[in-house]
What we know:
Layout: E1 2-3, H1 6-20, H2 24-43, E2 50-54, H3 58-72, E3 77-82, H4 90-100, E4 108-110, E5 124-128, H5 140-152, E6 155-159, E7 181-185, H6 195-198, E8 204-207, H7 213-218, E9 223-226, H8 228-234, E10 249-253, H9 260-273, E11 277-282, H10 287-293, E12 298-301, E13 320-323, H11 331-343, E14 348-350, H12 352-360, E15 373-374, H13 378-385, H14 391-405, E16 408-411, E17 417-420, E18 423-427, H15 439-452, H16 457-475, H17 486-491, H18 493-499
Parallel strand pairs: 2-3, 2-5, 3-4, 5-6, 6-7, 7-8, 9-18, 10-11, 10-13, 11-12, 13-14, 14-15, 15-16
Antiparallel strand pairs: 1-9, 16-17, 17-18
Helix pairs in contact: 2-3, 3-4, 9-15, 12-13, 15-16, 16-18
Keywords: ATP-binding, Isomerase, Kinase, Lyase, Metal-binding, Multifunctional enzyme, NAD, NADP, Nucleotide-binding, Potassium, Transferase
Binding site for AMP: 412-416, 440
Cofactor: Mg(2+); K(+)
Amino acid sequence: MKILSKDQVYQADKATENAENIPSYNLMERAGGYAFQYMHQRLQGQPVPVKIFCGIGNNGGDGLVIARYFVEHQYPVDVYVVNYSDNRSKDFLLALDELKKVTRKWPQVLKSEEDLPELSREDLIVDCIFGIGINRPAPDWVQTLFVAINKSGAYTVSIDVPSGMGIDLTIKDSAIVTPTIVLTFQTPKLAFFLPESGKYINNWTVLDIGLDRDFLNSVETQAQLIDKAEAQQMYKPRTKFSHKGTYGHALMIAGSYGKMGAAILSCKGALSAGAGLVTAYTTQQGVPILQSSLPEVMVMVDDFMGNVLEEIEFDLKPTVIGIGPGIGTSQKTQNALGEFLEDNEVPLVLDADALNILSKNKQFLDYLPKYSVLTPHPKELERLIGAWEDDFDKLKKAEAFSKKYTCVLVLKDAHTITVFDGKYYVNNTGNPGLATGGSGDVLTGIITGLIAQNYDPLTAAIFGVYLHGKAADIAINHTAYEGLTASMITEFLGQAYLDLFAKPEKE
């Protein structure tokens, strides 16, 4: 699903108006009508007290349209105009006129903190104060209203975006409405998936308001949401007359004394993703551990008897190499990695300690083959690209890093974002159970296993992240978030594949 920027939302509105030869107010009527129907279908006429807070722009106009429908359906409604400016949009004024035609109880105008009404947890609050156009903090008294809404405990519906949230920028030092649900128009917004702003959103759903299909199909967006429909298009089915060699040979350079679990998990990830052959390259003491725990995996070692990798040399020709889980950052290992990278031409997936070594030796970055996949968690990312001011600045820095080194950057988080060639691929699977040791090692193995099967690195990263999250989503049908372990991700990875083409259950 495409994620439109603020400017593209405005362009989509204009394209729709031109294609349908309608005034902009008709889109406001349409949007408000769909939002009302969503709430009305769930309320089923129950006389819930409704409080609608409207700004003085088009988001406020949506609220006035919603209010009119509530009045016409005989709900008990109180409408408030949050008067943070004397400038009203044209369509807001049209919506206000239409509302006045159906009710004698005109909206109450709020101009200061003293005007704010009492709120109850029994209320249904509809937040239409600010929309996607906000680019600076709201006035202090309006932020006080945001806080009051949040403290009320009422079921709160934000229309399009929570008031106070920027969709293309971070608005610092400002309160934001924390709704129960966001009814967002046509596409979700990038801010919904970023840590600083996404934490304010408990749930969201998209309302298709019929924006021009030609525009939506042709517009090129920087961000795309990856869900089941997109993942289905990436999957490569196996053929009848194939063999283990058809699906590649993944070499996992992983593990050291006390960290052999990372090697096991990354190898299991590659196997469960479908790699034809998997070989682990590790230290001497890791051989019995790997041979006894993973009979499907071959093992190679360095020529030293130490507890860390001191050289990386092998005589096989792997399809792809995953490197980093559990290798440590000793000086001997740093030297070994540098020497290996300088001569290597095999596609790479780098994670964990390999990333930490790169951060300590930035000159090694120049040795990476093009289209290498790097999978940092937030702290590893900061070591690579430097500190950032906010989440949008982080994305820009990650984008610049990806372009400089022609690499695929997988930014692991609640909604992992894969960055390449100026594009952001936002994952929509996974859950808090993934916040467990070894989860990232499994992801490294999955991506490596997909590249072994001839998925290109970008597709392998995007698809691998999706499958990793989906396996975790399936796993929590059998355990709580707290009970999810990294090994369980590999156990349910096959079911994540099956889910791609499973028919939805009938309600």
